[in-house]
Amino acid sequence: MTRLRAPGGCPWDREQTYESLAPYLLEEAFESFDAIQDAADGKPENLREELGDLLLQIIFHAQIGEELGDFTIEDVCAGITEKMILRHPHVFGDQKFDTATDVLNNWDELKKAEREITKKEEKPKDSILDDVPVAFPALIEANKLTKKAAKVGFDWEHTEQIFDKLSEEISELKAGILRNESGNIEEEIGDLLFVVVNLARKLNVEPETALKKTNRKFRRRFNFIEEKLKGLEKSFEESSLEEMDALWNKAKKYNFNSTEKS
Questions:
Q1: Are residue 149 and residue 187 in the same domain, yes or no?
Q2: Which of 92, 150, 199, 261 sits 20 to 30 Å CA-CA off 243?
Q3: 153 contacts: CB under 8 Å, gap ≥ 6
Q4: Low-confidence ranges of the chain (pLDDT < 70)
Q5: Chain centroid offset of residue 256 CA
């Protein structure tokens, strides 16, 4: 990367800044996220490649940081090493945490202790929700927001209460549709998704991952329909909804991989 950025290197690489690289960093992070499912499906080489692409972005930013005098890749590695030591006193110190839940329950206290030790300047916050970046994808942001609120007791006591809220939001959405209120419909769909995220959190399901898996499942089943129609030498325009639905039901029964349930 030093050579790419140096005189005589790559003109494109030399022009890049923190800001210009930001979209690529996000893109590579999402592609790595997607490749995790590939690894779960027995194709770890995809994850290996995507992690390499993500690592390239980190190296790229660190090279720019060194040129600007902001930080070096060694500073980045030293910083995360120190953070991991401080956040794992049960490994590198004398504290005892027997379960992962114990560690998570003490996580905020560990972060507070870390700031005191490192003297890291903390941005003033008006809300406990300020820790959740607004730039997060909506599902991840909603999950993080509700986790923060739940930590201070703002949460449903039982899963059944969330189902009641789900029914309420569905009724409100139906009412908005009947009144043909586009703004209200959008709001009610948002409310409905937010409740589903709460339900996922309560059931210890990561919603972004869950939806990603469903998206992949939809792709596989829809591809099945496409292939079958090609075999019949028929286009979508020439096929009825009943025919496509029948193929969809066949796709559901088809065992695409050992982890999928129809």
A1: yes
A2: 261
A3: none
A4: 117-123, 255-262
A5: 24
Cβ burial, residue 50 (10 Å; 0-12/13-18/19+) = buried
SS3 178: helix
Task: Measure the CA–CA gap between 251 and 262, rounded to whole angstroms.
Answer: 9
What is the SS3 assignment for 31?
A: helix
Nearest 10 degrees: Cα torsion 87, 88, 89, 95: 120
What CA–CA distance (Å, rounded) separates 82 from 103?
Answer: 18
Confidence (pLDDT) at 256: 53
How many domains are there within the chain?
3
pLDDT score, position 122: 65
* Cα–Cα distance measured from residue 65 to residue 9, given in angstroms and rounded to the nearest whole number: 18
With beta carbons less than 8 A apart as the criterion, state whether 244 and 236 touch: yes
Of 129, 148, 153, 142, give the one whose Cα is nearest residue 199.
142
Are 71 and 177 contained in the same domain? Answer: no
User: 259 in a domain, yes or no?
Assistant: no
pLDDT at 8: 95
Instruction: Identify the pLDDT of residue 259.
Output: 44
The range of the structural domain enclosing residue 15 comes to 2-129
At position 160, the amino acid (one-letter code) is E
130 C-beta neighbours (distance < 10 Å), count: 12
| Residue 167: predicted pLDDT | 97
pLDDT at 260: 45
Residues 32 and 78 in one domain: yes
| Same domain membership, residue 173 and residue 55 | no
* 232 touches 242 (CB < 8 A): no
Q: What CATH code is carried by the domain that includes residue 7?
A: 1.10.287.1080
